[in-house]
Amino acid sequence: MTTKTGKVFIVGFGPGDEGMLTQRACYLLQRADIIYYDYLTNAAFLEKINPQAQKVYVGKKGGGKKVPQDDTNEALIRSAQAGKFVVRLKGGDPLIFGRGAEEALALAAANLEFELVPGITSAQAAGWVGIPLTHRDFNSTLTWVTGHEDPNKSPDVEINWQALAQLGGTLVIYMGMHNLADNVAKLIQGGMNPQTPVAVLEWLTYPNQQVLEGTLQEIPALVQQQNFQAPAVVVIGDVVKLRKKLDWMSKKPLYGRLIVVTRAHAQSSSLTEPLKELGAQVVELPTLEISPVQDLTKVDQAIQHLATFDYLVFSSVNAVEIFFKRCHVLKSDIRKLSSLKIAAVGKKTAQALEQHQLYAEFVPEAYSGDDLAAGLAGFDIHGKKILFPRSAQARAEILKPLLQSGAEVEELVLYENHIPAASQQQAKTFFESRLPDLITFTSASSVKNFVQIVSGLPQVESIKKIPAICIGPITEQAARALGFEKILVTEEATLESLIDKIIKLFND
């Protein structure tokens, strides 16, 4: 039994978008042994930022299954006593209408070390949709109030809705959807103008974000008609009127478009972040998980005998990174490559090589065996030895033209592509709530794995009717073969070309 005592960090995740997570929160999440997370935190992001950490759901969803607070407190205490580095991750700020203080008190009573790490609370994210909570021409006060009180609390600390109605300024109601009609009635009875502007912000900063505006008098009926549900914050006050002028997000070319990115977690940000900058709501549904092969004997042998090859051909960024990472482990001198000619399939693969101070002699325009062979033919590959590092799932067809040209090709399996374990449940949850406007595919494997992930869903046929945009002809062929009906193909095999194609699709 360990004598080391751990520590618990009670951390705010922010309103939802990963970009609003604080640097301190990111640092702690990367170091955590175990993460206890809530309903309003992004489980997919946790897997991306720290795949090694144990993740435990302890959320409370209104009207749904709840983990009792005492059970959560006890779990935190046990983990800290076992010497673990514990992150208790809560949506928004853990000390604003959360139970961060209750959990901290339980840890203090157990004489355990803890730290409170604030986050951006959901109301502060109203600026994401152009609603400032304060403006000197409209309000001098800002009040945050819970719309769902503890039924066991003392009457002495119950909310005085009549006083709030007389206070003026901006009123923000957290957790107010269940009792919205009752609370609005109390405000009107207390003297608040029924025509006061109101905005309901559902899933603010998340891909399924929605905004509903109306007057105080009409908002309960509008919420019911539009089926707005928790989680949502309700902003009441004249500042809501400023949204017409300050809604900066809606001016972006991809505003309101929901796009699915199917790249592996480690690579998704290079596509996700530019799409978000253009105003898109992005859902990351990784279809690939990259892992080096377990038996590295052949890999090590090839690296030790690099000088016996004439050509080295890389077909992906993953192949480059895993190959040179292994070279580093083996302390293999890069000067062994001095006699080899290097080819890279795709501009991104060539750029990955440049990070290692290597420059490809040949980069084919398209990802195909014919283009690769045709280009290398100019180097007279007949009788030459070619080393081809690849994934276990790489298409053998790309090598046929090389072999037909008389080259001797040695395939070197470096890594495997797996479907991430969590993706199927993630897809089920996502597609039950909404169908996206577009699905992006960057490889044939991503198409095949995506179809396997969604194959059991009742929405699978509707999903195949969604426009799919593909990088390269091989990816396009896979999408067509697997039943996608509307397929677009990029002009070049680059993410930049993919993004340009998306902008054109939604703005022509």
Kindly describe this structure:
By secondary structure, this protein is α/β, with parallel strands linked by helices. Helices cover 34% and strands 20% of the residues. It has 19 helices and 20 strands. A five-stranded parallel beta sheet has the order 3-2-4-1-5, with helices on both faces. The termini are far apart. The mean pLDDT is 89.
Q: What layout of secondary structure does this protein have?
A:
Elements: E1 7-12, H1 23-31, E2 34-37, H2 43-49, E3 54-57, H3 69-81, E4 85-90, H4 100-109, E5 113-117, E6 142-146, H5 161-167, E7 170-174, H6 180-189, E8 197-202, E9 210-215, H7 219-225, E10 232-236, H8 243-246, E11 258-261, H9 265-277, E12 281-284, E13 289-292, H10 297-304, E14 311-314, H11 317-329, E15 341-344, H12 347-354, H13 369-377, E16 385-391, H14 400-404, E17 408-418, H15 423-433, E18 438-441, H16 444-454, H17 460-463, E19 468-470, H18 473-481, E20 487-489, H19 495-507
Parallel strand pairs: 1-4, 1-5, 2-3, 2-4, 6-7, 11-12, 11-18, 14-15, 14-16, 16-17, 18-19, 19-20
Antiparallel strand pairs: 7-10, 8-9, 8-10, 13-17
**Strand arrangement, major sheet:** 3-2-4-1-5
Could you estimate the helical fraction of the residues in percent? 25-40%
Q: Biggest β-sheet, characterized?
A: 5 strands, parallel
Question: What is the radius of gyration?
Answer: 27 Å
Sheet-strand content, in percent, reads: 15-25%
Which terms would index this structure?
single chain; 508 residues; alpha/beta; 5-stranded parallel sheet; 5-stranded mixed sheet; 19 helices; 20 strands; elongated
Short description:
By secondary structure, this protein is of the alpha/beta class. Helices cover 34% and strands 20% of the residues.
